[in-house]
Write a structure and sequence with these properties.
Elements lengths: L12 H8 L3 E4 L2 E11 L18 H5 L4 E6 L3 E8 L5 E10 L5 E3 L1 H8 L16 E4 L8 E4 L13 E4 L2
Antiparallel strand pairs: 1-2, 1-7, 2-5, 2-9, 3-4, 4-5, 5-6, 8-9
The structure holds a DNA duplex (12 and 12 nucleotides).
DNA sequence: GAATAGATCCGC
DNA sequence: CGGATCTATTCA
């Protein structure tokens, strides 16, 4: 399997989020298929961490693409993101994955991070250059990607930036 | 310094 | 539906 290129993450987060569905994610020695993603942008997206201005937390979104962005939400759950967009601050949130070995579904970014044992230490890792987490291309093309509004947010709820692989 | 909201999940 | 539980950011 081929590692996704740096360029893959250089586009608008909406594009990257859509393209990430059905890709293979490997963390430590566990492998899963990405089932659902959400895109977060800089412009016109009040739900994004990067909407207002650059801060210490969202700096990665501004400064990088193809890097891991992890943060703690509600004091108990980690959320796994990948930074995107060469020209703007952007990120893609990984919401669902399915384990390749067991076929178990982990539906929710807190559950995904719990399963993969992802914590704050993953923040800032370069997807091209680390031995903990990797995203591989998948040569099988799927057509039935469903587009929907994002979940669990209070702002910009009209944006159709959630992408789900549907059987 | 204090207050607040949050890209969540679980259990009642 | 409400609680858990913490931190980055905002407000005074």
């Amino acid at each position: 399997m081929k590692l996704l290129s740096k360029q893959f993450f250089s586009f608008d987060s909406e594009i990257v989020a859509k393209n990430l569905v059905w890709k293979t994610i490997q963390v430590w020695n566990k492998r899963g298929i990405i089932i659902e993603t959400e895109a977060y942008k800089q412009d016109c997206d009040q739900a994004s961490h990067a909407f207002w201005k650059k801060t210490t937390r969202n700096a990665l979104m501004y400064e990088t693409y193809g890097f891991v962005y992890v943060y703690l939400i509600y004091g108990m759950y980690y959320c796994l993101n990948f930074t995107t967009d060469k020209n703007k601050a952007g990120a893609v949130l990984i919401r669902w994955i399915q384990d390749i070995q067991t076929n178990k579904i982990y539906d929710g970014c807190g559950k995904v991070c719990n399963y993969f044992q992802i914590d704050k230490k993953f923040n800032g890792l370069d997807l091209q250059n680390n031995d903990k987490i990797k995203i591989y291309d998948n040569w099988i093309k799927i057509k039935n990607i469903k587009v929907a509004t994002r979940k669990w947010i209070s702002k910009a709820t009209d944006k159709l930036w959630r992408f789900i692989w549907e059987i």
